[in-house]
Automatic annotation (TrEMBL):
It comes from Paracoccus liaowanqingii. GO terms for biological process: DNA replication initiation. Belongs to the initiator RepB protein family. Gene3D superfamilies: Winged helix-like DNA-binding domain superfamily/Winged helix DNA-binding domain. The keyword Hydrolase does not apply. It comes from the Bacteria. Residues 27-159 form the Initiator Rep protein WH1 domain. This is Replication initiation protein. Keywords: Plasmid. GO terms for molecular function: DNA-directed DNA polymerase activity.
C-alpha cells in the first residue's frame, strides 16, 4: 500500500522546531544572503505558516527577529536583501522539469519604533510553490541559532530535508550545483581546495557536532578535476545524539574551542610563553587568507622576529602583515 503524500502546509511546527518547504532548501541564490538573512527568513516563514499559502499580510514583532543583537539596523538590512533576492527553484511545469525564478519576500511596512512591528507579504508565485510542496525540512530552532555560518545552516537544512528518507542515504551533486545551493558568491572559493577548506569542512564539522545526523561530503573526480561531490548522511546513535545535545548547551566560544581541540587547531601551550593570544577572528582571517600554513608556527616566527622591537600599536594587524610577507617569501 502506497504511503499517503502530505502537503507541506499541513505539517505543523512545534515549540522546538519550524517547517521549511523543501523547494526553499535546495534553491540557488542569484543574490547571496548572509547567515542572519537566512535565519530571519526562516522566522518569517514560521510566523506566516498558518496562512502562508493565502494572499494575506503577516505581522511580526521586530524584537522577535533580533536574535542576540539589540539593533534594528541589521533587521532592516536583511529585509532589504531578502526583498531584492532572486532565487531559482527547480519545479515541474506542464509535466516537465523547469526552473522558476521568484522573489523571497514581497512588500512590507516596518514601524520606526525599536519595539514596533513588521508587516510583510509572501509573493504570489512563491505561495503557489509552497502550496504545492510535499517535501519539507523540520529545523530545530536551537540548532539553527547555534550554527555560525550560512554554509553550515544550509547544509543542516539539506540534511534535515533528506534525513528521514528510508530509501536513500546519499545524493550526488555537480560541484557547481552544490556551490549554488550553498550560496557561494560568484568568483569566490573557485578551487575545490578553497571551497573545501573554507566552506565545506567547517560546515560539516558544525552539523556533525550539533545536529541529529552525521554528514560527509566526498569529492568525485572526472579526470584530474573534482567535478561532483557525494553528500552522505546517517542518523546518530544515542551516545552521539547526547553529545550533540551537550554541545548545544555550550557557549559559541566553548563550542569553537572544543572543535579546534578535536581538529588539532587549538593554540599550543608553548606559545603562551611568547605572548598573549591574538583575537580569534585574527586567526580565522589568517587561515582563510593562507590555507595550508600552520598559523601557530607562523605566529611563533612573528614573535621571534618582533622580539626586542617596540610593541606594535595593533598586534593583530602586524601579525597579518607579517604572515602575508612570510607566505610570499615561502610559498607552499
Amino acid at each position: 500500500m502506497a504511503e499517503k503524500s502530505y502537503r507541506t502546509v499541513e505539517v505543523r511546527p512545534n515549540a522546538e522546531s519550524i517547517i521549511k518547504p523543501g523547494e526553499l532548501v535546495d534553491l540557488v541564490e542569484v543574490t547571496p544572503l548572509t547567515l542572519n538573512d537566512r535565519r530571519i527568513y526562516n522566522q518569517l516563514l514560521e510566523n506566516a505558516w498558518d496562512a502562508i499559502d493565502k494572499p494575506v499580510s503577516h505581522v511580526i514583532a521586530k524584537s522577535a527577529l533580533r536574535g542576540s543583537h539589540n539593533s534594528n539596523d541589521r533587521i532592516g538590512e536583511s529585509i532589504e536583501r531578502l526583498m531584492s533576492a532572486i532565487v531559482k527553484v527547480a519545479v515541474t511545469w506542464d509535466g516537465e522539469s523547469a526552473i522558476e525564478r521568484v522573489q523571497l519576500l514581497g512588500g512590507n511596512v516596518e514601524a520606526n519604533r525599536a519595539d514596533g512591528l513588521l508587516e510583510y507579504e509572501i509573493p504570489s508565485r512563491l505561495r503557489r510553490i509552497i502550496s504545492n510542496s510535499t517535501v519539507f525540512a523540520r529545523l530545530q530552532r536551537e540548532v539553527m541559532f547555534a550554527l555560525s555560518s550560512k554554509y553550515a545552516l544550509t547544509l543542516y537544512e539539506m540534511v534535515q530535508k533528506r534525513g528521514n528518507l528510508r530509501w536513500r542515504s546519499s545524493e550526488k551533486f555537480a560541484l557547481e550545483a552544490l556551490r549554488g545551493v550553498l550560496g557561494v558568491p560568484k568568483g569566490k572559493l573557485t578551487s575545490w581546495s578553497n571551497l573545501k577548506l573554507r566552506a565545506i569542512d567547517p560546515a560539516v564539522a558544525e552539523v556533525n557536532a550539533l545536529s541529529d545526523f552525521m554528514v560527509a561530503i566526498e569529492p568525485i573526480k572526472t579526470g584530474r578535476s573534482v567535478t561532483h561531490v557525494e553528500l552522505r548522511w546517517w542518523r546518530k546513535d544515542d551516545d552521539a545524539a547526547g553529545a550533540a545535545d551537550r554541545a548545544l548547551q555550550y557557549s559559541k566560544v566553548g563550542r569553537k574551542v572544543r572543535a579546534e581541540e578535536r581538529e588539532g587547531r587549538a593554540r599550543p601551550a608553548w606559545l603562551d610563553t611568547r605572548g598573549l593570544p591574538l583575537r580569534t577572528d585574527t586567526y580565522e582571517t589568517a587561515r582563510m587568507r593562507h590555507p595550508g600554513y600552520d598559523i601557530y608556527f607562523i605566529e611563533g616566527e612573528w614573535r621571534a622576529w618582533a622580539k626586542g622591537k617596540p610593541d606594535a600599536a595593533n598586534p593583530d594587524r602586524a601579525f597579518l602583515a607579517f604572515f602575508r610577507k612570510y607566505a610570499e617569501a615561502n610559498p607552499l
